Amino acid sequence: MLDIFNDEYFMKKAIQEAEIAFEKGEVPVGAVIVANNSIIAKSHNLTEQLNDVTAHAEVLAITSASEFLGSKFLEDCTLYVTLEPCMMCAGALYWSRIGKIVFAAKDEKRGIGSFNCSAFHPKTKIESGVLESEASELLRSFFNNRR
User: Fold this and answer.
1) Which one, 45, 61, 103, 136, has least CB within 10 Å?
2) What is the pLDDT of residues 40-88, one digit of tens each?
3) Statement: residue 141 has pLDDT above 70
4) Contact call for residues 106 and 113 (beta carbons, < 8 A)
5) What is the DSSP letter of 105?
6) Helices (H) and strands (E) in the chain, counts
7) Residue 37: CB partners within 8 Å, gap ≥ 6?
């Protein structure tokens, strides 16, 4: 049986959020949090609109998912995000105890992987590269338009 609710399906939803950010002039990063094959939270970067450096897609999605579940812990959830989380977001994800993180594009300069540290909760599963080219192209297009 074909399972349409797979990593690509949910990453496409995160990319749709990134496209909303792009249209608003925000760095195009989108995130969705999934529990039991249902999206329980979605967001995109809002740092410019809110004038808040902490308004990253991941942080906003964590807050929304926690409110939806009535719990600060997200052990049975998966985060789909279009760009590798930064150190700030990795810290928030650590404390949320999120069960799985799937990201599309690596962030060579500011992604948590560039800091050579173990930032995620030990039980959190990590997967990368899902729809990487689509997410990377959106970011490239955004920054090329800014130059």
Assistant:
1) 136
2) 999 999 999 999 999 999 999 999 999 999 999 999 999 999 999 999 9
3) yes
4) yes
5) E
6) 5, 5
7) 5
CA-CA distance, 23 to 19, in Å (whole number)? 6
Residues taking part in catalysis: 58
Label the pairing between strands 100-105 and 125-128. Answer: parallel
Residue with tokens 């969705």: 32
Distance CA 99, CA 64 (A): 16
What phi-psi label fits residue 47: left (phi over 0), alpha (psi between -120 and 50 degrees) or beta? alpha
Identify the H or E element spanning 101: strand 100-105
Of 3, 122, 123, 142, nearest to 82 by C-alpha is: 142
Please state at what angle helix 57-69 crosses helix 7-23, rounded to 10 degrees: 120
Structure tokens that stand for 87 in this block? 């150190």
Query: Whole-prediction pTM value?
Result: 0.94
